[in-house]
Amino acid sequence: MKTLNLLRYGTISLYLVLVIFGILFKSAPTELNLKESFLPPSFDFPFGKDRLGRDVFSMFAYGSLATFLFAFPARVLTLAVASLIGLVSYTNPFFKKNIFSPLSSVFVSLPSLLLALLVVQVFGAGPAPLFLAIVLGDWAQAYETVRAKIDEVSTSGYALAASCFGASKSYVFRAHLLPQAFQILKVLLFTGLPAVVMTLAIFGFLGISAGGSVFGPGLGEQIAFSKDYAQNAPWSLVFPTLGILGLVMTVGGKRS
């Protein structure tokens, strides 16, 4: 077990060092240089260059950064929406029974990627539609978990005592239920981040991404572009794949 943990932390550390080094010492891969197309790995370009002459090391680093900068706030926003709906459900049983419970059942039964693709199809590609797509795809599962925790804590002695002393439901939720639910929110944050990373990678593979003008192509977009030229430049396909795996391992948190 210790050997596996050392291997995991060593892999994460190496991945983070490469990303940080690439961001600090490489510029964003937003410009093309066809004269250096398919340049093999070298001292100046350790990961080589792709068909358009872009530095694969730079794309690896900035693609990882761009994915994280979208994935983390999107997951936090999803949990915030789930917590807000949990508050409304707790303070108003009518909304819980007649609106949120049926609605969450429908959203849970639908594939999150399908919902996300529908949102992007309707609103187009961009930061706001991507955030909305991720929230709509994941809020129901997060809400069901938060709601189960709220139902459990709401029957505890201190919550019942606060209600008996005249505390409002919003106060009980804010002062007693939400702190107890914080641990489950933390777990949901880190267990859900890998799925968000993979969703963004799939979006990129399908040509849906945001921030390309600032950070260059995303990891999924790099894979989609390089797969047809894998024989000429296999490094341009391998390293973005390793970037996705490294980011998933890094944001996934500690597993017991």
Key traits:
256 residues, mainly alpha, 0% strand
Q: Find the structural class using helix and strand composition.
A: mainly alpha
**Helical percentage:** over 70%
Q: How much of the polypeptide forms β-strand, as a percent range?
A: under 5%
Low-confidence stretches: none
Question: How does this structure look, described?
Answer:
The chain has 10 helices and no strands. With 256 residues, the protein is mostly helical. The longest helix is centred in the C-terminal third of the chain and has 37 residues, at 169-205. The termini are close together. The relative contact order is 0.15.
Summarize the structure.
The chain has 256 residues and is an all-alpha fold. It has helices at residues 2-25, 56-91, 93-109, 112-123, 127-154, 157-164, 169-205, 212-215, 219-226, 235-251.
